[in-house]
Amino acid sequence: MSEAVRRPLIVRLFQGLWNIVAWAYRVLVILMLVASLALLWVSTRGGPPVTVEDNVALIVAPSGTLVEQIDLEPAQRIAEQFGGELPSQTLLRDLIDALDAARLDSRISMAVVKLDGLTDAGMAQLEELNAAIDRFKASGKPVHAYAPSYEQSHYFVAAHANDISIDPLGMVAVEGLSSQQMYFKDALDKLGVEVNVFRVGEYKSAVEPFIRNDMSAEAKAANLDWMGDLWSRYGTLTSVARQLPTDTIDQYVHGLAPGMQRLQGDAAAYAKEAKLVTHVETLSEFRQRMAETAGMDDELGSFRQIWSADYLRAVHGSRKTVPPDSKIALVVVQGEIVDGPGEPGYAGGDTVADLLDEARRDDHVAAVVLRVDSPGGSVYASEQIRRAVQALKADGKPVVASMSSVAASGGYWVSMAADKIIAHESTITGSIGIFGLVPTISKPLEKLGIHTDGVGTTPLAGAMRIDRPLTPEVKTIIQSSIEKGYRDFISGVAEGRSLAPEAVDHIARGRVWSGLKAKELGLIDSFGGLDAAVTTAAELAELNSGSYELEELHPGISSPLETLFHFLGQAAARTQALGSLGGLVEQLSQTPELRQSLGWINDPRGVYARCFCAVTLGRP
Hints:
Structural class: alpha/beta
Number of helices: 25
Number of domains: 3
């Protein structure tokens, strides 16, 4: 008797209905993706022409995360572009380019900085944006800032405007810097999971969440040191921009509670009293005030304006320049460094190394700028990138590392062989150290009545299985490997920075430094942003100003047709997953939260140069 006959009628009925649902899902996905292909093709053509009228305001309104390179999944990119959503990523260079072009454009009379859509940005990135705002102001054109409320990162930018407006119900939420994380030792102990940790350096605190319930005294001391440098810089730069005493921000934070009580909870009034804002007004009142200069657009219901993305499209479309023979290639290392090609949101060691090799083989590329915004990750992947940098130098092409907000641990590993390293005083760097994590789950399996046994031809055969405890021999092998990796890291820094290995070891051991301290210690060469790095690269390559252009090299799907194939592959995987529990588990493992927490753990040897050194500028 066949299986179909043996199964009850109700089971066969539901199975048939489920098959219909699955097929309908497939058809719907394909139809949607075909439509997306058409929309994507339209988007790649640049959209309709943009005209810049006279006497308009440039709107600088970053949204989502401020990034060095857009690295969204294709599906998300299309959904945002055609679904009316605010972009989840904003390219820092686009904002800077728009401000720099507009300051010389007689059609742009002023700039308006709108910051409430910005959710995440590094302090060093915001410093580069602030420098562009200051250059715009230096041209004689005013900059106005508006937000319903200002988070800490928002205000760091707004302080550079000529005047700052806040809603009557708003607040300037400046509170200080913090570095917080969760610790799992008790939970892992209750589950019976044993996390075997191997590390070098008393300050390599990335492993502490797995072996402690709190932050160690060494980690607290090191974190307070570099955070103190950043907080001091935040207060100084913000106060100077507002032409206020340098302790204004500290006084504001410490006086917030009594000030709020005295003003009956009116946070906007307290901010204005402290001279952190100049106007307390509604958005409608702000628009009317801007219209006094730029005029009112009755159709828009606001003052006459052009958004920075549209302005850049108009400016780039009107340029008719002949590309010079020489190029400086820009290669970005953004996010956790992982083995292999990587995915959006990660820096794949193979992908970045291939881009650097592409620059090496391009006869028109005279120099390379390696832009790093990464806390590190896989040691093997980081080493692939470092070797590609060395290959460029061996071919006579200088490499300049430009550190953004974070270039620590593996982020420093990929930078250490560069001819020059340029960072901000607020860059988080250093963390020269490595560690290994090997979890074993034999104890929780035993509680469930599951036991592992067998034989092997040597004592090491099967010794790394997750369902067996590590033997002393295996632990010795792993610790020796970690120590060797640390020596490699130290020797690489010593060679690249022309320092004695003993001197490097003294400032290494996993300790995190601010860019300010890193320069004193010889870990970086000078302060500056991307523009300074490009200028330095041109000087090393002996290129004259105006004789070269900056060209970003980036991976990604290059055509709408390839994007469609990518979508279809994702859709097929999700459709197949509808029919199996294993597929469901696989899909759950791809959730953004889990991928962000664990996606960087893929080094082939389980060895990592990773720094958990993020600093909270705003509220999570």
